[in-house]
Structures are given as structure tokens and as C-alpha cells.
Amino acid sequence: MKKKILLVLMMSVFALQMTACGKEAAPAETEPAETTEAVETTENTENTENTEIANPWKEITEDEAAALVPNSFSAPEGATNVVWRAMGDMDPSSFEVPGPVIELDFDLNDMSFTAREQITGDDNQDISGMFYDWTVTNDITLANWADGNMPAKASRYVGDSESADLVTWYDVEIGISYSLSTVAKDLDGFDPQAIVEAMYDPNKQASAGIPDDEDSHIPMDITGCDTFTQIVDKLQAGQGYANVTIADKDVLLVASGTYDYDGDGKKFVAIDADVYEYDADGNILYLGYVECGGTAYPLSVKDGVLYVGNNHGMQKMTITEFDILAVDENAYVDYDSDGNGTYYYTSELRTVNEDPDGKFADDSKLNEFYADYEKAEMVEFNTVQ
Questions:
Q1: C-alpha closest to that of 293 among 270, 276, 326
Q2: Distances from the Cα of 78 to the Cα of 74, 150, 198, 262, 266, angstroms
Q3: pLDDT tens per residue across span 293-305
Q4: Choice between 37 and 55, residue whose per-residue pLDDT is larger
Q5: Is 167 helix (H, G, I), strand (E, B) or coil?
Q6: Which stretches within the chain are classed as H helix?
Q7: Which parts of 63-161 are beta strand (E)?
Q8: Residues in contact with 335: Cβ distance below 8 Å, sequence separation at least 6, in sequence order
Q9: β partners of residue 114
């Protein structure tokens, strides 16, 4: 089954609404060049003094943009004057939604474009900053986003002096809103969907490099290893390891990689791990593989429970008396194509919900799990040099 556990980096709440007129007399703008520089307002000819309005946009690199929003896009081939910006709190230690708005400006074929992306959670939002009275709006389906099943809307404004195009789409699986806009004197015959398709970057998708089937993960060969130390000795540079306690059992977690959570070089965490333990005879057992949904959800432990989560769910994992790594409790939400969520509360080990399908009436259990996760301790990994 295709994985739904995808990378979601959650940032602090902010909301800066951009306003623009939707009348033909004063068409909307997509926040042109003045957003890149502080606006100087007051100049005294005798005693020159500039008062700067705080610029909400910060110029960033493409790598920084990709780290802030998963399933990101890239400038199309042939684009020029490419500039990446971010607006909002970019503190990676926050889990709150909405996250910062990421903006990509570029020129292509003598036209200027503005693309935006933002983690908006359960809300599909128009983040374009454009408020035209659209002449026409059509439902379309993007050919490569979401494996060719991404619904989108294409809107066009046609005026006497200029026209505007806007394409908006929303990744319901991980809660990201997108937009692409352009303004020109005449857009007759122009297809904005082609630009959106050209912006798709498979290497930036959260699922890139992740097996389609969870069972297809291949752990390292530990033949000849009698101790955890011998396993650690076989790790490659960049991998990580940690000793934790799960259900009163001493466990070794081996991560494919680690990252500096606070950016100060003091705490390295991970979002995936192979899990090992000793059996009753002292032999090493491989229990399985766990993976979270991105750097916002590092593996965490509290009271002998391993927390594995993403933006749409949280699992509490344990080890049974039969040495099986199992989901003790699982709370999650599943969205349909219209963005309507159905909540579930299930367990591999026991009955936790009267509904045979695991459906839950509301998001209370999911919110409870997220609150428990916030109180858990992030597993700190040692990184192999």
C-alpha cells in the first residue's frame, strides 16, 4: 500500500493578508518588486532621514525553501531572474500551522510569474494575494502532481488594459496550498497549466526515495553481529544510532540519517529507524522499521512508548511479550478528494473503538495524541562520522 506517511515540516502561526483591488480600474497585483525591499517613506531635504517599513519578505535559497515546505516546486527549465523568498516565522522548532509563505519569482518567455506554497493544514487557502473579479474559472487536473490526480482551478481575468491568470491547487494528503500567477497585457492563447506542470520536481517530493510498500524496506545485514556495538560498528557515515527503552525492553534504533534539530549542533534526531532488541537468550532480533512524516516529527519516546507520526496521524508503538513491534494505538485522519476528513482510532493489539472500521466521531482523539507527543522526549541520535 502506498505510504501516506509523508514529510511535513510544521512552523509557527502567522497570517499576513495581502490586499489588492479586483476592479478593472485598478487590477490586483501579485505583490511586485516593492516586496523585496523596505519602502523608504520620509525624506527631509535639509536633514535626510529615511524611515523604513519592515519588509515581511526574506530572500532565501532554494534549499532553504525546500526545507520549509515539502513537495516543493522548482523554476521551470529556461527560467531567468529566479528569486526565492519567505514570509513568516521560519523557526523549525515550531509545529504550528499555517507555516511561512514561500514565494518563487521567475521570468520565462518574456513573461513574469509568481509561484507560492504554504503549509495550511486542513484548510485549502488561496495564498496568491490576487483578488480579481475573475472572468472565468475552470476545474482542471494536473498531469504530474499527485501521480496525475491533483485537482486544480485555473482562473483568468480579462480587462481592457491587462489580463491575469491564476492556478491554485491543494495537496490534501499533507495540507499544502499552492498558486501560480501572472499578469500581462494579453494572455490569449497562453496556457498557465503548462507552467505548473513544468514546475513539478519529482526530486523534491516527500515520497522521493521512499519505497511504495512499507514491507519493501531492506534492513542492513547484521550477520555475525552478537551485540548492539557490533551493529553500530557496521554503520556508514551519516547514519545514526540510539539506545532507548520501549515497553521495558532495551532497544537499539538505527537511523538512515540524522539532522540538527535546533541548528546549534547539540541535538541530532531522526525520522526513521530500524529497531533491534535482544531476545531472552541474548540473541539480536530485528523487530522492524518505523518512519515519521518529516522533520517536524522526529522519533520520540515517553513512558516506554515510541511515537511515530505525521501531519495527519500519530501512532503509539510498543513491543509485545512475543517480541513484536506493534501499534498499540493509532489516531489519524483520512481526506477524500474534496478535502473532507474522516477520523479513525485503531489498535493492532486490542479493541479501542466500538466502530468496526475504526471510525471516530471527531478529531478529539487525534488532538489528544498530538498533545501526548508534545510531552514526549525526542530521541537523540549519535551520528556516525
A1: 270
A2: 11, 25, 10, 36, 41
A3: 878 899 999 999 9
A4: 55
A5: strand
A6: 62-68, 192-199, 228-233, 364-375
A7: 80-87, 101-108, 111-119, 136-142, 150-158
A8: 122, 172, 173, 312, 341, 342
A9: 105, 181
